[in-house]
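Entry 14. Two folds queued back to back today. First construct below, sequence then structure tokens.
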Amino acid sequence: MLSSTPRAVHPGAWWLWAIGLAVAVSQTTNPLVLLLAAAAVTFVVMARRSDSPWARAFTLYAVLGGFIIALRLVLHVLVGLKWGEIVLLPLPEIDLPSWAAGINLLGDLRLEGLLAALFEGMRLAAMILCVGAANALADPKRLLAALPGALQEIGTAIVVAISVAPQLAESARRVHRARLLRGDGARGLRALTRVAMPVLEDTLERSMALAASMDSRGYGRRGETSAARHHTTGALTLGGLLGMAVGSYGVLDTTSPEWVGLPMLLLGVLLGALGLASGSGAVTRTTYRPSPWRSPETVTAVCGVFAAAAAFASAHWEPSALTMPLTPLGPPPLPWLLTLGLLVATLPALLTPAPPVARERDCVQRPTATTEGSHP
């Protein structure tokens, strides 16, 4: 199953793996599980990321997660609901006008409320770390090429959006290297004003180059489509979206009729697939060296789905282990099913091929035949 030849894993497999982990993390506020999930994600990223620009953005997502945790704690101290019995820091409470009733500004800081805010921030940070792992492991350009033709426009917008952080990381690295070569070793806030404008300018230039290259390859262009096929595609897509929305509500609401749940969800998925197939037929495009889907991709996607399934199983069989006991305080329990799911989620680090060496390091700019061959 493990291939010895270095190659890039299909980006869709990495996104399915990351989405499964994000779903699993969203079901718990247990700090042990959240730390284990962050460790599993980091382990896989460090083992299978390349040295491409988007792979270096994982550090930015980790920093963003830490910032979210700190911001969540600060907001709890300022306007959060103070509850609990153990007072950590007595603070004065500021009365607000009547239109802001229900909001407490400052007040006694209590341990239980502070821990609850911390664990909520950790959950959101872990979910963001999962998204950062997908960005670090999946090539956004190959992901765009793998999308169905009907999702070409929205896929382009999504790829541009998720590639902002990698582009900023690469631009910051290039500008920092240029400053060091010029002997400018300023750090901290003093260097921010010197770095911000060059980074934004470089990012804008790279985005314009990407847009120009995509336009030259025919992205956003459609062939001739009959009005009947256009209306059929729209009706199938709209019916699929409505079916999936109603079916999802029926699955979540246990009091709804049986036909509103899973049957309506499956019908919506079927109509949506037919709409995608009909819309993709109207887009004529070719893909150079399409990304293969082999056994490592299947293993990666299954590991992510297994983690999500383990989280839902834990919510059914051991719900008390998914939360941290705050009243009274005690050691957090360890949900064995979810822990097993997170351990299985680390298998792609061992069962997927190693990433190829980045071509940017191997390629050397050589003179072309038109520039060098024209001179004797």
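Second construct, same run, same settings:
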Amino acid sequence: MSDLVARTGRHQQRYEDGYRLLAGCIPFKYRNIGQNCGEASEKKVEVLMINSTSGPGLLFPKGGWETDETAEAAAIREAMEEAGVRGDLVHFLGYYAFKSKTVQEECSPEGLCKAAMYALHVNEVLESWPEKNLRERSWLTIPEAIESCRHVWMRDALEKGFLEWHRDGMVYTIPRKEYC
């Protein structure tokens, strides 16, 4: 149960060249479309977004990358804390720099941030998670997510990172099953 508690504070926060370092992910899953026995089925990619606690629009889970963890561990932790999902990191999407409108601090006086973003294939959706009372989850198609994304840098991570890696598009055809 100890892993269902959110970390707080910034005493272990990483900084590099005036940037506060963050880690996050684009959680995704495949939803089956048309599963008739003996016919080919398709799987549609959906991504998970969460509401912002400070205004309109949706976000991908992200947060501080701390000195006692890797970027990968931080991304997995943030997915569990903010979105209540667990899964496997399957691809590094890149680093995305942006300026925080709310966080200017001694180590990053300009509010500069750089986020390491990953694709996280979701294999568990938790009923209870640390920020459940603050967050609502939404599974969206890629076009819906692009439209709903609150921050330009997150939209870039989706369009230039996730979609370029997931080049096949948003729908996959699965060969028909011989046995049902």
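Quick look at the second one. Confidence is low (pLDDT under 50) at residues 171-180. Residues 36 and 176 are 9 Å apart (CA to CA).
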